[in-house]
Amino acid sequence: MNESWLTVADALREARDLGVDRLDAQLLVAHHLRRPRTWVLAHDDAAIGAPAVAALRADLQRRADGTPLAYLTGEREFHGLMLRVTPAVLDPRPDTETLVDWALELLAGELAALPAPQVVDLGTGSGAIALAVAHRCRRAVVRAVDLSDDALAVARANGERLALPVQWLAGDWWRALPPPPVHLALSNPPYIAADDAHLDALRHEPRHALTPGGDGMGAIAAIVAGAGSHLEPGGWLLIEHGFDQGEAVRRLLDAAGFDAVATRRDLAGHERCSGGRRAGVPVGGRDSANSAPAGGP
Fold it and tell me: What class does CATH assign to 76-285?
């Protein structure tokens, strides 16, 4: 169609012809009309004016080319928080909520005796992990690290808008982290192998945040290797990884002397996060094997 205006039904038809998922199309229409999706569903015959049509068509083309919806709308919901998202950071995935859930379980259980547990998010991107933990566990002292100044600007803006007290640090993994040592370290590092065919479908996202090159294990190996001098004895390290990397990450953790090494699966049943506890007296002086989880973080 070349009309300067469309109805909502026309726009959704154009989206379908481009191969855009119907839900994504509805959300883009809602975004450009500044209406909720429920309004779009109830107003098939509503007119979309010429300025909005041009912008909507451009975004539908970009979505059909694989640009993440979050980059087009500028936001993504993650663990109950609405985050601003730009092409400077990864589009936060629901799978990463598995890592946050595990962290919150530890803060409410084995680490519950700590009045102000020190938590760090290595490679924070949009700040999703750090902000979710700060939101759900208000007593945690949360720091977040990223090598990209552009990513840190996005994360810092999210923290300010949500009024969540996270300290943002620029640098490379552990090297950016000053004392004190931490009780809980979390990371969703780049882990896709350089020759993985999936990278082409992710071409609109920052490549450095997707792959460290080689077999994809370089960043994970560096994080595990540096953990010993930054984790309190009994402190935990949790890392997100690829669905086929769980065994390799567990081996790294075992070799580095971590105990209680385990893996969590995502909603699709894939191995998604692995972690372990630094050997030593459990933080807070608690015997984790015999202590019951506290009622909340």
Answer: alpha beta
* H and E: helices and strands count for the chain: 10, 11
Residue 186 zone, left/alpha/beta (φ > 0; ψ -120 to 50; rest): beta
Residue 211 CA to residue 131 CA, distance in Å, equals 23
Cα separation of 202 and 71, whole Å?
12
Q: Are strands 258-265 and 271-278 parallel, antiparallel or unpaired?
A: antiparallel
**ω into residue 181 within 30 of 0, thus cis?**
no
Q: Are 24 and 69 in contact (CB under 8 A)?
A: yes
Looking at residue 296, its pLDDT comes to: 42
- Specify the long-range contacts of residues 90-94, CB closer than 8 Å, at least 24 apart: 90/125, 90/126, 90/188, 90/205, 90/206, 90/209, 90/210, 91/205, 92/125, 92/126, 92/128, 94/266, 94/267
56: Cβ contacts below 8 Å, ≥ 6 apart: 11, 28, 29, 32, 48
> Model pTM?
0.90
What integer pLDDT is reported at residue 4 of this predicted model? 73
CA 60 – CA 58 distance, rounded (Å): 5
Instruction: Report pLDDT digits (tens) over 231-281.
Output: 999 999 999 999 999 999 999 999 999 999 999 999 999 999 999 999 876
What average pLDDT values come out for the chain (297 residues) when binned by 10 residues? 77 95 96 94 91 94 96 96 96 96 97 97 98 98 97 98 97 94 97 93 94 96 95 97 96 97 95 94 48 37
DSSP-based three-state secondary structure for 271: strand
Q: What is the pLDDT of residue 260?
A: 96
Of 196, 245, 205, 195, the C-alpha closest to 223 is 245
Q: How far apart are CA 83 and CA 96, in angstroms?
A: 14
Distance CA 106, CA 236 (A): 9
Q: What single letter denotes the amino acid at residue 91?
A: D
